[in-house]
Amino acid sequence: MISVGIKDLKNKLSQYLRLVREGQKVLVKDHNRIIAEIRKYNQDSTINST
């Protein structure tokens, strides 16, 4: 699992998305607090829209 700050994610988005495609999970941090997780989409799962 990889963690990255928002600024770095923005600047290197293609690189991080390539890692996600390869199966890596990316944790997104804002001021050292995890705010999101980017992971490969599983077509078998359903998206919960609330």
Describe the overall structure.
This protein has about 50 residues and is α+β, with helices and mostly antiparallel strands. The protein has a single domain, classed as YefM-like fold (3-Layer(aba) Sandwich), CATH 3.40.1620. Helices cover about 30% and strands about 30% of the residues. Strand 2 and strand 3 form a beta hairpin. The longest helix has 9 residues. It is globular. The termini are far apart.
Main traits of this protein?
single chain, 50 residues, alpha+beta, YefM-like fold, 3-stranded mixed β-sheet
| Terminal residue distance | 27 Å
CATH fold-level topology? YefM-like fold
Q: Biggest β-sheet: count, sense, barrel? A: 3 strands, mixed
Compute the gyration radius: what is it?
A: 12 Å
The number of distinct β-strands equals: 3
Proportion of beta-strand residues: 25-35%
> Class, according to the CATH hierarchy?
Alpha Beta
Q: What is the averaged pLDDT score?
A: 92
**Residue share in helix:** 25-40%
Order of helices and strands: EHHEE
Tally of distinct domains: 1
- Read across the widest sheet, the strand sequence of neighbours is 1-2-3
Number of helices: 2
Please mark out the parts with pLDDT under 50 across 5 or more consecutive residues, or reply none.
Answer: none
Question: Which secondary-structure class do the elements indicate?
Answer: alpha+beta
Shape: globular
